[in-house]
Amino acid sequence: SQQGEEDPQALSIQEGENATMNCSYKTSINNLQWYRQNSGRGLVHLILIRSNEREKHSGRLRVTLDTSKKSSSLLITASRAADTASYFCATESNSGGSNYKLTFGKGTLLTVNP
Amino acid sequence: DTGVSQNPRHKITKRGQNVTFRCDPISEHNRLYWYRQTLGQGPEFLTYFQNEAQLEKSRLLSDRFSAERPKGSFSTLEIQRTEQGDSAMYLCASSPTSLKQYFGPGTRLTVT
Predict the structure, then answer these.
(1) What confidence score (pLDDT) does residue A3 get?
(2) Which of A47, A59, B30, B32 could form a disulfide with B49 if both were Cys (CB 3.0 to 4.6 A apart)?
(3) Which residues in chain B are contacts of A42 at CB distance < 8 A?
(4) Does residue B2 carry a pLDDT above 80?
């Protein structure tokens, strides 16, 4: 079953603008990860934030995590047409024996118009 | 590091037929995962191997599904007596000791 929900389901912006995607989840987690998927292809890991972290940066990406609200956000600054893809949040539960499996949300489809 | 590879990339089969997919993880990655993704949804966990041991199976993995990783390297996922509801993208991922997973390009299965 899906752990979380991304919001919005779809987002269309102009090149150069910032894009913000949100993710909510249901259970306690060890970490939350964001992945990108180009149409019909595999997923690429973008960034991981642990449950004891509140904010993390990687290049043009900024991720926040609020464990009290069970939510995370991904900000992509100065977007480019090449950022067009689906973005998924994925959580690793901290229940015993999780085996590091990931539970994904439904994703946000980002379209960056040139 | 040549990445995770999956074969075939596309498979069209008739309902009732058996299909087998292969995943070659990044060498020396001891963890291997299978996920299934349907259109408009995120990937859903199917099963997990640590080396050759299958340590977890999802309830999604009915008795028509079987996965193996005989020597702790490549893995196969077999679906017997395929049904139209099995049509999906089947994704394989591997990881070393880190938490990050490396995904293959997937095998798209269409059951007619």
Answers:
(1) 60
(2) B32
(3) 4, 91, 103-106
(4) no
